[in-house]
Amino acid sequence: MWFASAARALLVQSPERPTFPCRLGRYVRTALLNASVAGLLLLFLSCGSSNPIKVSTLHNAYVTLPTSGSVLLLHISQATGQISLGPQTPPTVGVTPYGLALAPSQKFLYVANSFANNISTYNIAADGSLSQPNAPIPGGSGPNTAIIDPSGQYLLVTNSFSNDISVFSIDSSSGALTEVSGSPFYANYNPGEIIFAPGPTNFVYITNATIGMVSAFSFDTSSGTLTPVPGSPFLSGAGATGMAVYGNAPSQFLYVSNSTAVNPNSDTIGNISAFGINSSTGALSVLSGSPFTSILGSGPSELVLTPSGNLLFAITAGSSYSVWAFNISSTTGQLTASSNSPYSVAAGNLFALIDPRGNYLYIGSQTAKGITAYTYDANVGTPNALLNSPFSTGVAPGRMVVVE
Length: 404
Prior knowledge:
Blueprint: H1 2-12, H2 23-45, E1 58-65, E2 70-77, E3 83-88, E4 97-102, E5 108-113, E6 118-124, E7 130-131, E8 137-138, E9 143-148, E10 154-159, E11 164-170, E12 177-179, E13 185-186, E14 191-197, E15 202-208, E16 213-219, E17 226-228, E18 234-235, E19 240-248, E20 251-262, E21 269-277, E22 284-286, E23 302-305, E24 311-315, E25 323-328, E26 335-337, E27 351-354, E28 361-365, E29 370-376, E30 383-385, E31 391-392, E32 400-402
Antiparallel strand pairs: 1-2, 1-32, 2-3, 4-5, 5-6, 6-7, 6-8, 9-10, 10-11, 11-12, 11-13, 14-15, 15-16, 16-17, 16-18, 19-20, 20-21, 21-22, 23-24, 24-25, 25-26, 27-28, 28-29, 29-30, 29-31
Helix pairs in contact: 1-2
């Protein structure tokens, strides 16, 4: 805090001098110095009514509202997880904003406008409000999910209708986007979700839900070029959608939710494919025991890892057996359903994420037209609804990002 810095400055500016020749002098000098520091702190704290100490207790977040054609600012309490609504951008007909990505500088927000086939760049003010000084730039056909590479230099956007992925370099000072040479890159049929497996060589994975595959690429951070990984695309399962990456190279694992896959001898619909990632080539190999599923439930579409990395949530629509929780083996990557999973709570299939401090699970819900929110047990994943959940966004949200 700034008053602590001021106190330290006072200490630095008050070096000991041999003014008092005895032990008593040292005691007096120390007492005076401590009194000065205490007085300084009290002065700062006593000014609360006229000049309060402002300590940020909120995370800003952004959520797209596809049917409204706008982006909504949210405020999330770090202490309680409660969500309050901020301003939203002016509604625009025929735009359908969906995927979004936050620049590492947290000064720019990029939004993929699915029906308009373009990308909007928003400037982020100190209070989190958005402005759009320039017109959107052209993208592919049906831009869907957006992500920024680990180096922070490039924006990648999947294009569902043109079956490819656009890559743009980011001007760090202005936020301007420039499409790189060779973009867009073919990404097989109906590319949707996109995720990076960071490491010495960055690998990119994209789900192709219609064909139940995962397309894999190596990513060149010097040029923004995508090169298909040998053996790509890899078979995952029917309705391959959400993804999560666990671990660090050379021991990394990719998980893919297959929302409509059929499980032999089971009434559960949908499962999770687990792959080992070859740290040299990016190729995927199926883990022993994969695919993994729940004893009850249907349609896992979104995956999210807890910050500790030992727990994986799979989220389905509805409220019956809707949240699946799995513990992850750190050595083999295999999944084991946690005790009491699945959980029957109000969920959704639009998105799932955990706040930067790892305390709250947020789920985008079509039926609630908003966001359901939970605390959860860090070991087994038991969700407990937050007060006032679900939090309405007026219309069904598209995607959400949280400012760290």
